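Our preliminary data section would be incomplete without showing what the modeling component actually yields. Below, a chain of 148 amino acids is followed by its predicted structure, encoded as tokens that our downstream tools consume directly.
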Amino acid sequence: MIFDTIAHIDAYKGIHPGVYKGLEILRDTDFSALEDKRYYVDGEDLFFFLTTYETQPVNDTPEAHIKYIDIQCLLSGKEHMNVGALEDMTEEVLPRPEGDIRFYRGPTDTVTLCPGKFAVLFPGDAHAPNIAIGAPEKVRKVVVKVKV
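Predicted structure:
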């Protein structure tokens, strides 16, 4: 997992071309002019979607993906995201491989997402986003999906 600010994206030029392209999307796109839906940049290899939702008090089933890297960035609001190593997950509770998502239980640590910060989540990173900090609040998020 990478957790950083958009101001530092040049540090990640060499890790994966799709990840850097995704970070450029975060830096260069005026998301306020776009509606909540999926946008294709390079077909199924690189796309992003915008979503608006209310954070929830608990998310105790971290998810992980096999085919895609997630880049998550809040555009408004703030939320906690619990993250942990996939190999440390103790139980798979809901596999949905057709949607490239599996849900687990296991130990995690917490990071705080807010506008200007992003998390890059690789296939080995279990993550439980959308967690309220105090009272639930409305947030808007962009999630960039990069095919591995």
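DSSP finds one helix and twelve strands in the chain. The chain has one domain: 2-147. Preliminary results of this kind motivate Aim 1 of the renewal.
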